[in-house]
Specification:
CATH architecture of the largest domain: 2-Layer Sandwich
Number of strands: 19
CATH topology of the largest domain: Beta-Lactamase
Strand order of the largest sheet: 3-2-1-6-5-4
Oligomer: single chain
Number of helices: 16
Radius of gyration: 36 Å
C-alpha cells in the first residue's frame, strides 16, 4: 500500500508540471505546436514513471512480503500440512544437532515483519523487522552465512532480545525462498563457534532448501502431502535404527525406504576400502549379476570416483555418452543388460567422504531434481547414523576393552563368561578357563623400563590371540596376566591349545635395546563344571593351577 501511495504522489507532481508546461506553451506559441509539446511531455512522463517503477521493483525484489498460502477445497488446508512439515524439519534438526538451537522465520504480510515459525521461542524473538541486515545478507549469499554478535550488534539484539549472549556465540543462517524470491531464513544458534564442524553449514543449507521445496509445493496439496509423507519415512530411519546393530541392519532399513520412493533396477552402497584407491560393495538391492556384496573394485577408472573422491553428485541418463570409456566397476565388465542411467550421492562419515549410494536403471532416463533431493536426505541421514554408530563403537571399545592390548577387559570378560557358561549348561557341554601369567615380568620392567614392558605385554597378547580359535574369548586379567574362555572343551582336549600358547611365546624373539630376550609364560587350567559351576571359584581353580606351573619353573601349563 505504501508503494502505491508513493507512486500516486509522484504522478500528481508530474501532472502539475505538464499542466504548467501546457499554459506556458499556449501563451507563447501557436495552439497546434502545443499539442506536439504536450504529446512529447506525456511520453516523457509515462517513460519516466515506468522506469522509476521498474527500479523500485528491483529494489524491493530481495524482500517480497507476500506469502499467500491458498486455501484448499480438499480435506486439508495447505497451511496445516506445511506447518506439519516445519515441525518435522525441526525434529530432524534437533535429532542431528541436539546442541544447536534452531529457528525458522518467514515474512508475514500483515505485520510486515519476519515471524518465527514453530515453538523455538526459548532463544529467538517472535518477530524481526524487515530491514534487519542479517536477513539482507543471507538473501544475497548462496552459501550458509556465519554471523557473530560483534559483526551485527543491533541486528543480533533483535534476534535475542531477552537472552544474554557473548562473542563466542554465533549464528548459522541460510535463506528460504518462495516463487524464487527470498522470504525468510533458517537459523541455528551455536553457543561456541569452536563447536561448529565442517559439515554443519551444509546441513543448515540442506534443511533450508527443504523448507523452500515444501513451499514450492504449497499450491498443490497432494504433492505437499506426498512430500510430507516421504519426509516422515526418511526421518523414521533415525527413530527405528539401533546404532548398536551392524551396518547391514542400518542399510537394510534405508533401502526399504528407497524402494518406496525411487524406481531403480539396481541400488548399490559402496565405501572406500583400505588404500582409498579401491571401494568395497557394502549392500546391493536389485540386479546383482555385474557385482555383488563384499566385492572390492578399483576406483581409478570408475565413474563412482567422482562421488567418492570428488564429493560430487552424479546424475546421468546416458553414462556411455557422459563418461566415455570410464567403467562402473571393472574395465572389462560384461553384463547381460546394460545400465544406462545413474544417480549417485556421496556418503560422508566423520567429515570424510567414505563412499556413495547409487541408483541405476536400464532405462535411459535422468533422475529428477526431487529424486536428487530425497536421495541426498537419505544419504545425509545415513551419514548421521553411521557417525553415531562409529562413536558408539569407540565408546563401547573404551568401556569393554583394554587400552594397551586391545583385548577385552576383565569386567567384559566376566559378562561373556557368564553367557558362555549358561550356553554350555544348556548344551550339556564343558568349558575351560585358562589363566596366563608372564614369567619374571618384573625383570623386564626393572631392566628396560615400563614402556618396554608395555610393548612386551602387547606382543604376548597378540601371540595368545593367534594361538586360540576365533570363537574363544581372550581378555587381560590384570597386570601381566591374561584369561581365556575356551568353549566346548575339557582338560584333555585343551592341552594342545595350552602347549601352543607356551611354545609360541617361548619361541618368539623379543629384542629390546638390541638385546635378544626370552619371555615365557605359565598357564593354569580349570574346567566347568568339573572343577566348579561358579565363575569366581572356577577362576580361583585356574589361578591355583597357574601358580603350580610357576613352582615347576614356568614355561609350562598345569591343570
Amino acid at each position: 500500500m505504501n508503494f502505491i501511495k508513493k507512486n500516486i504522489r509522484y504522478i500528481f507532481i508530474l501532472l502539475i508540471l505538464v499542466a504548467v508546461l501546457f499554459f506556458l506553451l499556449y501563451y507563447k506559441i501557436g495552439f497546434g505546436t502545443v499539442y506536439i509539446y504536450l504529446i512529447i511531455a506525456g511520453i516523457i512522463t509515462v517513460s519516466g514513471y515506468l522506469l522509476w517503477s521498474f527500479l523500485q521493483k528491483e529494489k524491493e525484489k530481495k524482500i517480497k512480503p507476500v506469502l499467500d498460502l491458498p486455501n484448499s477445497k480438499l480435506n486439508e488446508n495447505p497451511r496445516i500440512v506445511f506447518n506439519k512439515t516445519l515441525k518435522l524439519i525441526g525434529e530432524q534438526l534437533m535429532t542431528i544437532k541436539p546442541s544447536f538451537k534452531f529457528a525458522i522465520y518467514l515474512i508475514d504480510p500483515e505485520s510486515n515483519s519476519f515471524v518465527l515459525q514453530g515453538d523455538s521461542v526459548e532463544y529467538f524473538s517472535n518477530s524481526i523487522n524487515l530491514k534487519n541486515k542479517i536477513f539482507h545478507k543471507i538473501f544475497s549469499e548462496e552459501q550458509t552465512l556465519l554471523v557473530k554478535p560483534n559483526e551485527y550488534q543491533d541486528e543480533w539484539i533483535e534476534f535475542f532480545a531477552d537472552i544474554e549472549t557473548n562473542n563466542s556465540n554465533c549464528l548459522l543462517g541460510f535463506k528460504i525462498s518462495y516463487n524464487k524470491s527470498p522470504i525468510g531464513g533458517l537459523f541455528a544458534f551455536v553457543d561456541d563457534v569452536r563447536r561448529i564442524e565442517s559439515d554443519d553449514q551444509i546441513i543448515i543449507r540442506q534443511f533450508a532448501n527443504q523448507v523452500t521445496l515444501s513451499l514450492s509445493m504449497i499450491d498443490n496439496i497432494e504433492s505437499l502431502q506426498k512430500h510430507h509423507t516421504i519426509q516422515e519415512k526418511i526421518n523414521s530411519l533415525v527413530n527405528t535404527v539401533n546404532i548398536s546393530e551392524n551396518k547391514s541392519a542400518i542399510y537394510e532399513k534405508a533401502v526399504k525406504i528407497c524402494q518406496a520412493i525411487f524406481k531403480y533396477d539396481k541400488l548399490t552402497i559402496m565405501v572406500s576400502y583400505q588404500d582409498v584407491e579401491h571401494a568395497r560393495i557394502e549392500f546391493v538391492d536389485g540386479y546383482s549379476l555385474d557385482i555383488s556384496r563384499d566385492e572390492v573394485f578399483p576406483l581409478k577408472n570408475s565413474i563412482f570416483a567422482k562421488a567418492i573422491h570428488d564429493n560430487q553428485i552424479i546424475n546421468s541418463k546416458d553414462i556411455k555418452k557422459d563418461f566415455g570409456k570410464r567403467c562402473r566397476f571393472y574395465e572389462d565388465e560384461k553384463t547381460k543388460r546394460s545400465i544406462s542411467s545413474v544417480l549417485a550421492v556421496p556418503l560422508v562419515v566423520n567429515q570424510d567422504v567414505s563412499g556413495c549410494i547409487a541408483l541405476e536403471r536400464f532405462e535411459e532416463k535422468e533422475y529428477s531434481a526431487i529424486n536428487i533431493f530425497y536421495l541426498e536426505k537419505i544419504a545425509q541421514t545415513l551419514n548421521v547414523l553411521l557417525q553415531w554408530q562409529s562413536e558408539y563403537h569407540k565408546m563401547y571399545l573404551n568401556t569393554t576393552h583394554d587400552n594397551l592390548t586391545g583385548l577385552l577387559n576383565y569386567r567384559a570378560f566376566l559378562n561373556r563368561l557368564d553367557i558362555e557358561m549358561n550356553r554350555a549348561m544348556r548344551a550339556d557341554q564343558s568349558l575351560v578357563i585358562i589363566i596366563v601369567d608372564v614369567d619374571k615380568f618384573k625383570r623386564i620392567n626393572d631392566t628396560f623400563g615400563h614402556q618396554t614392558g608395555n610393548v612386551a605385554l602387547k606382543k604376548v597378547a597378540d601371540l595368545i590371540s593367534l594361538s586360540v580359535r576365533n570363537i574363544d574369548v581372550v581378555a587381560r586379567y590384570g597386570g601381566e596376566e591374561f584369561i581365556i574362555a575356551v568353549s566346548n572343551s575339557d582338560k584333555t582336549s585343551i592341552e594342545q591349545i595350552a602347549d601352543r600358547i607356551v611354545n609360541n611365546v617361548a619361541n618368539n624373539i623379543f629384542i629390546f635395546d638390541n638385546q635378544r630376550i626370552k619371555i615365557t609364560v605359565s598357564l593354569g587350567i580349570a574346567e566347568f563344571p568339573k572343577d566348579s559351576d561358579q565363575i569366581q571359584k572356577l577362576i580361583e581353580a585356574a589361578d591355583k593351577a597357574m601358580y603350580n606351573a610357576k613352582e615347576h619353573g614356568g614355561n609350562t601349563f598345569s591343570a
